[in-house]
Design a protein that fits this description.
Elements (H helix, E strand, L loop, with lengths): L1 E7 L7 E10 L4 E6 L7 E6 L7 E4 L4 E6 L15 H7 L5 H9 L8 E7 L2 E6 L5 E3 L3 E5 L9 H15 L10 H7 L17 H7 L9 E11 L5 E8 L7 E8 L1
Antiparallel strand pairs: 1-2, 1-10, 2-11, 3-4, 4-5, 5-6, 6-7, 7-8, 8-9, 11-12, 12-13
């Protein structure tokens, strides 16, 4: 499960800002963000060693792509194609997002249900494999977890509510400080039972997955990512990795600038 808070066109100085958590089983091995040599070092992304793809990546032309799964246990396939290859496919091509999504629409059934966001600071689109809907993301603050874009799950609502204040802390012409964003992403407070969705995983898991930062012994937030693109063409990518001990169990803290 994952969470992304997306500020698109909400700040004239910083047209695209993302803050997100990647949640996964701790036994599933992965690599922190790096420039992939097989793409001539143009793509910056982490790597999931099981599917060999990624959950979120950018390239030096400021193209961006990310995927989240759609929480629907009844729709899972045992032999599905890896969704993590889709961001790499988009980042390694020159196709526009709408055409890319039209292209993968014909094979969306080969994957387990997913959402995908792709584009750049001047144009961002979202695709749902469950509905086949391709939509332009409108300027503003958006949230995406494991349902459709802006589904008002408590963690999505909390993240969206906090983002305008974080944007105000960014100063034009200065390197952004990612710490306020990381503090938001480290929030482990669960939502009240009355606010929980019913996605078919049972009440105990709904509670555990309702916080921005997920922390259980075997499954939880593995990394937090903050991506900030400014109006002058610069971009910063910050990543923080975590072990099973929660938000204080910090592994690597990475910074990339391009």
């Amino acid at each position: 499960m994952c969470l992304w808070i997306i500020a698109y066109g909400a700040s004239s100085d910083f047209p695209l800002v993302l803050a997100g958590n990647r949640d996964e089983f701790f036994k599933r091995r992965s690599r922190p963000a790096y420039f992939w040599p097989e793409y001539r070092l143009e793509i910056l992304a982490g790597q999931d060693f099981s599917g060999l793809g990624t959950w979120m990546g950018v390239n030096k032309n400021r193209r961006l792509a990310l995927v989240t799964n759609i929480r629907d246990p009844k729709a899972l396939k045992e032999k599905a194609t890896s969704r993590g290859m889709l961001p790499l496919e988009f980042l390694g091509a020159e196709i526009v997002p709408e055409a890319f999504f039209e292209k993968i629409l014909t094979r969306a059934g080969n994957y387990n249900p997913f959402n995908m966001v792709a584009g750049w600071p001047d144009g961002l689109f979202c695709f749902s494999s469950q509905t086949g809907k391709i939509e332009a993301i409108t300027p503003g603050i958006h949230g995406l977890s494991n349902a459709s874009l802006d589904t008002p799950w408590p963690k999505v609502f909390k993240g969206r509510a906090a983002m305008p204040g974080l944007l105000k802390g960014l100063k034009a012409g200065k390197e952004p400080d990612p710490e306020p964003f990381f503090r938001l992403l480290a929030d482990t407070a669960p939502a009240p039972d009355s606010k929980l969705p019913d996605t078919g995983v049972g009440l105990e898991w709904e509670r555990a997955l309702s916080s921005l930062f997920v922390s259980t012994p075997d499954y939880g937030t593995r990394c937090s990512t903050v991506y900030i693109a400014d109006s002058s063409g610069r971009a910063w990518f910050f990543e923080r990795t975590f072990g099973p001990g929660g938000p204080d169990d910090i592994g690597l803290s990475l910074r990339f600038f391009f």
